[in-house]
Amino acid sequence: MTSLTSERFIAMFRTLAERIEQEKGYLCELDGHIGDADHGIAMAQGFAAVRAALDAADASAITPTEVFNTAAKSFLNAVGASSGPLYATAFMRTGTLLKGKAEAAAEDGPAVIEAMAKGIQERGKAEIGEKTMIDAWLPAAHAVAAAREAGKAPKDMLQAAADAAQAGADGTKDMVASKGRSSRLGERSLGHMDPGAVSAAMIVRIIAASLSD
Amino acid sequence: MATKKIINKGDDAVDEMLDGILDAHADTVMRLDSNKRSIVSRNGPRKGKVGLVIGGGSGHEPSFLGFVGKGLADAAAIGNVFASPPPDPIIECTKAVDGGAGVLYMYGNYAGDVMNFDMAAEMVAMDDIEVRTVLSTDDIASAPLNEKHKRRGVAGNFFIFKAAGAACDKMLSLDECERIARKANDRTYTVGVALSPCSLPQTRKWNFEMGDDEMEIGMGIHGEPGMSREPLQTADDITDRIIDKIFGEMAPAKGDRVAVLVNSLGSTPLMELYIMNRRVHQRLRERGVEVHKTWVGTYCSSLEMAGASITLMHLDDELTGMIDHPCDCAMFSVK
């Protein structure tokens, strides 16, 4: 089990930027059903800005906290929208979690998921069942806590988080939106997955894969 | 197939548009060195005046930056297409227009805008700038009356910002400016109708589907679904539906006064807007309501969406004064 260095976190953000760029069209299409078809664009722009900011940083000289704070600032200012403040807050909370560490331990990997979920919930004030990204993030955080309780290894905790986030995102299909822009659709949002929850599940899965092993 | 647009690169659309606006309107607005998405009035902000910062996503031109100028908004923070601006341009706008009397934030009620403007307000509070926020919720088709706080802000922004901007320009206190802004919002009613979808410069795909013979009453300015999808009707029938909905809530009495805005969502031409306006005036006359002023044109668009919205502002003496107050903006003026 190797430790989580700044280089590992930077590599994680590079993967996020690549994968979300690939999924951009799909996320926009999902958003077209219940929103304004721009979610994929916003997320891809945000992670591209994070990658550019981290490319400009000296990976060997910055701490994990600085990696996340850089990500927060660049994501926020590239995106705005609602995903900007939500993910920026998620990254800032993770930066706080890792404060004072030159490198993080393997156990910190699952805690990243929990910190991000906490930040998103604090900023967006959404609850489970309102058909938002929190329907993927909170189950992921709860799965981490449950797996930790059960004495699982960090790798398995991360896997549990990824699975729970995916199940949560799938579940938004059967929900009526009551928060965010799609809430104005009421019943007509039924039958469509929430694009914010779908991208959240992708992000949790990529973070889990990047911080395992 | 990609939708047809006169653009270069989709990702450059917003910044290239801003370049063009600054080339055209350099006498009224300027861009801040500290943030290229902060557009500030050359003549408006001054010491002792409440600053008015508006903003929102791009794609609604001339909203919002077209309403920056003396007598109306002092600055606009510019977001990506259909996306709220981040806190940075909002913060820079706030600092640039702060005259020591506080700053009013006004924008449409959308989750993203609320989060970003609130984050900006928290940050400028650390610099001792007092910020008050008034959200516009004029789209009465977007939620029932008992859930007014969930309603969207749409073309009625034009009247609401106009009233608030006049209050600020008259050097009223922050309390007074806020009160007038809230009253303006409470007395402004909009309902839209969409005939065809729009497409974002980055995707160039229709952002929703609509049949060749269909229309949707109550659709939002980002394509949010409205009250009902139905076969296209005549101008008079569409206008009647909208006016009935507005009258149902506004309940104007005989002798009351209103300001009228008939707004294109993008590609609907003036010819059709004036046909609607004719019917709006007929209905107001029948009801004994006096029209103080009428504006017809594109004031809050949704890219190339076809369709229109009708806004009525229920005037009283105070709001009439605010609407008549002179202003000189990049894309709008009252002499």
List keywords for this structure.
heterodimer, A: 213 residues, mainly alpha, Serine Threonine Protein Phosphatase 5, Tetratricopeptide repeat, 8 helices, B: 335 residues, alpha/beta, Rossmann fold, Hypothetical Protein Tm841, Chain: A,domain 3, 2 domains, six-stranded mixed β-sheet, transferase (chain A), Dihydroxyacetone kinase subunit L (chain A), DhaK_L_YcgS (chain A), kinase (chain A)
Quick rundown:
The complex is a heterodimer of chains A (213) and B (335). Chain A is mainly alpha-helical.
Q: Can you say what the CATH homologous superfamily of chain A is?
A: DhaL domain
Number of domains of chain B: 2
* Portion in beta strands of chain B: 25-35%
The CATH class of the largest domain in chain B: Alpha Beta
**End-to-end Cα distance of chain B:** 46 Å
- The number of distinct helices of chain B, counting runs of at least 4 residues, comes to 8
Architecture per CATH nomenclature, i.e. the level-2 architecture of chain A: Alpha Horseshoe
- Oligomeric state of the chains present here: heterodimer
Low-confidence stretches of chain A: none
Mean pLDDT of chain A: 92
Strand order of the largest sheet of chain B: 1-2-5-3-6-7
User: Could you give the count of β-strands of chain B?
Assistant: 15
Q: Architecture of the largest domain in chain B, CATH level 2? A: 3-Layer(aba) Sandwich
What integer value in Å does the Rg of chain B equal?
19 Å
Largest beta-sheet details of chain A = none
Q: List how many beta strands of chain A DSSP finds.
A: 0
N-to-C terminal Cα separation of chain A, in Å? 6 Å
Detail the poorly predicted runs of chain B: none
What is the top-level CATH class of chain A? Mainly Alpha
Region (Disordered) (chain A): 169-191
Keywords (chain A): Kinase, Transferase
Domain DhaL (chain A): 7-209
Protein name (chain A): Dihydroxyacetone kinase subunit L
